[in-house]
Design a protein that fits this description.
D-Maltodextrin-Binding Protein, domain 2; 2 domains; 8 strands; elongated
Length: 162
C-alpha cells in the first residue's frame, strides 16, 4: 500500500498506523480443516495436531504463520510440508491429501461441502482477530477508492455468516 501498488486491502490486523484509514468489518478465527474421513477428526488433540503434516497459505512461501506463533508461545511446533498462495488452492489440496490446514472459519463454512472438508476446533486457535478494510489517506482522495471503502463498510458481514 505504501508503494501505491494497492489502494485498498482487507486484512486481519489489530493495529493500524495513523497514516491509514480503517474500518473493522468483522472478526475471524481459525479452524483445523481436513478431508472427510481424515483420522485426526475422530480424536483431535493438540499433541496429534503438532505431529501431523500441515499445509499453510503463504503468498511468500514462508512456512511460518500465525498458528506457528501461537504454538511457539506454548513451546510447541508443527511441520508445514506445503505452502500454497491462496485459500482456494488450500481447500483443493486438503480435499485430495492427508494434510491439515488451519484456515479462516468463515471461508471453510462456505466451501466445506463443495470440497468435501470437515473442521475441528482447537483451543490454541480460539483467538478472534479483527478483519479490517484499510486504505492510505492519499488513496482515499480518489473518488472510486473512497466509494469502494464506504461500500465495504455497509456490507452486513455478520448476516452473511461472516
Amino acid at each position: 500500500m505504501e508503494s501505491r501498488a494497492l489502494d485498498l486491502a482487507i486484512l486481519p490486523i489489530a493495529d493500524v498506523p495513523p497514516r491509514f484509514v480503517e474500518h473493522k468489518l468483522f472478526e475471524e478465527d481459525f479452524v483445523v480443516t481436513m478431508r472427510k474421513g481424515h483420522p485426526f477428526a475422530r480424536n483431535p488433540s493438540i499433541k496429534r495436531f503438532c505431529g501431523m503434516r500441515h499445509l499453510l497459505v503463504s503468498l511468500t512461501g514462508d512456512a511460518q504463520g500465525v498458528v506457528d506463533v501461537a504454538l511457539a508461545q506454548r513451546g510447541l511446533s508443527r511441520r508445514v510440508v506445503l505452502t500454497v498462495p491462496s485459500f482456494m488452492m488450500a481447500l483443493s489440496a486438503l480435499a485430495e491429501t492427508d494434510l491439515l490446514g488451519t484456515l479462516p472459519r468463515h471461508l471453510v463454512m462456505h466451501r466445506a461441502k463443495q470440497f468435501g472438508l470437515v473442521t475441528v476446533d482447537l483451543a490454541v486457535l480460539r483467538r478472534r482477530d479483527p478483519v479490517r478494510v484499510v486504505a492510505t489517506k492519499a488513496a482515499m482522495m480518489d473518488a472510486g477508492t473512497a466509494w469502494l471503502f464506504e461500500l465495504l463498510k455497509e456490507v452486513p458481514w455478520e448476516s452473511k455468516g461472516i
